[in-house]
Write a sequence for this structure.
C-alpha cells in the first residue's frame, strides 16, 4: 500500500473523495498527511475526523516561497511517502 500526502487549501471536497475511496476500498493507499496552506480550513476538520496528520501553514509565515516549499519537502521525507 502506498503512503501519500494530500494537498488542500479550502473545503477539502477532493480530499474527502480520496478518504471515501480509501474507506470503500476502491483506492489502495494510506492517507498519512494533509498539507494545508490555509490554517483553519474545513479540510483540516476532515483530516482530524480520519486521524490524518496535518501540516498547516501560511505562506506569509516564511521568508520566501522556496522556504515553505523546503518545509513541505522536509515533512514529506519525515513521513517517507511513496512517489
Amino acid at each position: 500500500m502506498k503512503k501519500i500526502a494530500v494537498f488542500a487549501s479550502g473545503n477539502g471536497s477532493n480530499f474527502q473523495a480520496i478518504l471515501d475511496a480509501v474507506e470503500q476500498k476502491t483506492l489502495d493507499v494510506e492517507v498519512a498527511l494533509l498539507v494545508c496552506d490555509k490554517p483553519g480550513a474545513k479540510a483540516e476538520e476532515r483530516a482530524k475526523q480520519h486521524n490524518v496528520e496535518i501540516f498547516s501553514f501560511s505562506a506569509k509565515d516564511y521568508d520566501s516561497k522556496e522556504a515553505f516549499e523546503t518545509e513541505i519537502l522536509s515533512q514529506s521525507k519525515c513521513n517517507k511517502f511513496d512517489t
Q: What stands out?
A: DSSP finds three helices and three strands in the chain. The chain has a mean pLDDT of 90. The longest strand covers residues 29-36.
